Amino acid sequence: MTVTELVGVYDADGSLLGELAYAWGKVRGTRHCGLCDITHALVRRKPEWDAMVARLPLPLRVLHLDELDDPLREAVRRTGAPVVLAAEGGSWRELVGAADLDAMDGSVDAFEATVVRRLGEGPVP
């Protein structure tokens, strides 16, 4: 089967209160999202993130937990967040999990290399 789309899911809500709660938790050391570290520097999205998304062979959207439709919500229930999911054959599978995102230590280059490599490997059994 062919992957048709990628969705990155932050471990945070996108509402104003959700963003504030995440920021407060990050300052206190009680919240962390490896995908947030990759896509953002402080409060702004990294320009290198936007350039990388434009280079990817597939569309990549990033969503917050409160922005998910039912199929994505179910996939995140199975995988946890943060996560990068791949649309394949009408369902979602994990492409990059939370531990891998954390190991990238905020690097857009590491993210791109991992995504491109895993897309080339095909479905995960």
TrEMBL record:
Protein name as annotated: Uncharacterized protein
Taxonomic source organism: Nocardioides zeicaulis
